[in-house]
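Quick question, first post here. What does this chain look like in 3D?
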Amino acid sequence: MLKQRVLTAIVLLAGLSAALWGMDLAAWGWLVAAILGFAGWEWARLIGFAPLGARVAGVLTFAVVGFCAQRSFDAQGVVADAAPALSALHALAILFWLLVVPFWMSRGARPAQPWLVLTGVLVLLPPALALIQLRAIGVLPLLLLMAVVWIADIAAYFTGKAFGRHKLAPSISPGKTWEGAAGAVVAVQLYGLAIKPALFDTAQMPSAPFWAGMLLLLTAVSIVGDLFESMMKRQAGMKDSSQLLPGHGGVLDRVDSLTATLPLIGFYLLNLIPGASN
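> Answer (accepted):
Ran it through. Tokens below.
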């Protein structure tokens, strides 16, 4: 299993590297749409769609993400006319992750399927567009900001293994602990300090308290995103969202935390850093 997991990770990293440096923004948009199409198929399976319906949902997800990407971005970045709608979409996703998801998880509730279909739009479309938005700025900012989630996951795992005593959400994900979450917070704060000079020029540099708060919020929503997908899989009686990625599960298993953090990053870039999306 470990060998399979490592080999899959190497292939994914090689493919991602080739795509990031070899594709223009339009091609990158279609690639993101294709990846999210598989995620849409997995989401439909999680919420109880029949096999044919899940495949249709995947195709529709690909089409919607691709259409929105081509209408919202050009070679210079975010199209001016699309910026207000993109900002509003990110804001809705942020409210969903900060308010609705914690409420659902606290109650252990599973809404009716029509609501879960709408939920899928907020889970998949904003982060997909944020990935394209970040790529419009540059490859390095995209990788550095995506790595916030990777750092949080790795730190939480090893800190939880070493010091974990108090369960974070035992009914959803018994392996996660408050100690692991604290380790993620510390690691992301240190990482954030290290990458800050590479992300911002002098005119855009956020204050230390604001940046620390932003990193704390990103860490928190990354954990919420991870727990939310775990809850959805547990309620569906599934261990992984699919078996598309040998040793890793499905697309949703790999992007669960990113679905929650990317809208926050996208909103920040659109509204708090003038010119950052162009």
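Residues 208-236 form the longest helix (29 residues).
The chain has one domain: 2-271.
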